[in-house]
Design goal:
The protein has helices at about 15-30, 45-50, 65-85, 120-140, 150-160, 185-195, 215-225, 245-255, 270-275, 290-295, 330-340, 345-355, 360-375, and strands spanning about 5, 10, 35-40, 40-45, 55, 90-95, 100-105, 145-150, 165-170, 200-205, 235-240, 260-265, 280, 300-305, 320-325. By secondary structure, the chain is an alpha/beta fold. Helix 5 links the parallel strand 8 (about 145-150) and strand 9 (about 165-170). The longest helix has 24 residues, at about 120-140.
């Protein structure tokens, strides 16, 4: 009997590629046909306990990726060799393992060069980026099947040298029960839990603050301009952590007025979305943008860079939410003012949100399984 071997850093439900990895593993394990071996640093307990799942946890010494990555590759190769005689299909993420089988691309390192404040931090990011690009290039070159999370990602992997006939687009799904439409009672409860004013309009930024990829610097400049207006009555909540968090907190304190509140990394994003009125995501590079997808499913208008993968799914009538230049604080100011003056914004998002919620994670899992089986 053959088996699946899934290799990635984390299989959890806390957002981004980790959630997608979890969803694929869960889907495959519930088909009750083949064992699903998982090599990862973190595997959620509810996944590891499923009957068909064989968890192989790899340490991440001192919590550092650069120490855990060599161990991940070692154990992935070992299990691939162990399972090969009976037949195994390996699904790895990007450049983390060069398995020569299925590569599921959530992010293309060659498509974006990150920047950060501080000379030492910038040097570390530059060195890490060069290593990731080289590892990614080698893994993609040998992969027999490449799964992309958007047309944007497909274009980037083809530009990186992957033959077009080996690349496929499979969009993410959603847990519609967790990220369903928000009612008034849930909104009030979420605001109370976060100690937020019950009636003041609230914008949300969600993203890592380790470099400038997510565009918080653009949002900060726009927010500073908006807060200089007498008619701007919106507060900003920021979720996410990273090396630049403390510096942004200091800048926000200097801005004064308590108009920006930092919540750090959150595992309850469904509730944070419930408390919010709009998501702002001016990312410089976003292969997809699951946080935007989740916010939309909750019914929030989401202002996002037009070049983000998720933006290609926006209907034409929501084009006003797409930013053409993620570097432009002025364009973001205009988009936020347009949102604030549009009393129908949530109503216009509702049909799109309903369509997104109709595609669950199992739809995604089934498509990936079908592509891999068809390419056997």
């Amino acid at each position: 009997m053959s088996a699946w071997l899934l290799v990635a850093g984390d299989f959890t439900t806390f957002g981004g590629m980790d959630t997608a990895n979890f969803a694929l593993a869960s889907y495959l394990s519930r088909q009750a046909r083949e064992d699903v071996h998982i090599v990862a640093h973190t595997i959620a307990a509810e996944l590891a306990s499923q009957p068909r799942v064989q968890p192989h946890r790899v340490p991440r010494p001192f919590g550092r990726h650069r120490f855990g990555e060599p161990l991940m590759r070692h154990w992935a190769r070992r299990w691939q060799s162990t399972l090969a005689p009976a037949g195994v299909r390996v699904v790895a993420n990007g450049g983390n393992v060069d398995a020569g089988d299925v590569n599921w691309v959530h992010y293309v390192h060659a498509a974006f060069t990150p920047t950060a404040a501080g000379t030492m931090h910038r040097r570390r990011i530059d060195a890490r980026h060069r290593r990731y690009v080289a590892e990614e290039r080698a893994a993609l070159a040998r992969a027999r099947v490449v799964i992309c999370n958007s047309q944007r990602t497909l274009s980037d992997v083809v530009a990186a040298g992957v033959p077009r006939d080996r690349a496929h687009v499979v969009y993410y799904g959603i847990d519609a029960a967790r990220f369903g439409a928000i009612d008034a009672d849930e909104r009030a409860a979420a605001r109370l839990a976060l100690a937020l004013p019950p009636d003041r309009p609230l914008a949300l930024f969600s993203g890592a603050l380790g470099d400038r990829r997510k565009g918080f610097d653009t949002l900060f400049d726009a927010w500073r301009a908006l807060c200089g207006r007498d008619d701007w009555d919106v507060d900003l909540v920021v979720t996410g952590a990273g090396a630049e968090l403390a510096a942004w907190q200091a800048r926000a304190a200097a801005l004064g007025g308590g108009r920006i509140r930092f919540l750090g990394f959150r595992r309850d994003m469904a509730s944070v979305f419930a408390a919010s009125d709009v998501l702002v995501h001016p990312a410089r590079y976003e292969a997809y943008g699951l946080a935007v997808h989740e916010a939309l499913c909750r019914g929030l208008p989401a202002i996002v860079s037009a070049a983000a993968g998720v933006a290609e799914r926006y209907p034409e009538d929501l084009g006003g939410l797409l930013l053409q230049d993620p570097e432009s604080a002025g364009e973001l100011v205009r988009a936020l003012l347009a949102w604030r003056s549009d009393a129908t914004a949530r109503d216009r998002v509702a049909p799109f949100a309903s369509r997104l919620r109709a595609r669950g994670w199992d739809h995604m899992g089934h498509e990936i399984e079908s592509i891999v089986q068809g390419a056997a």
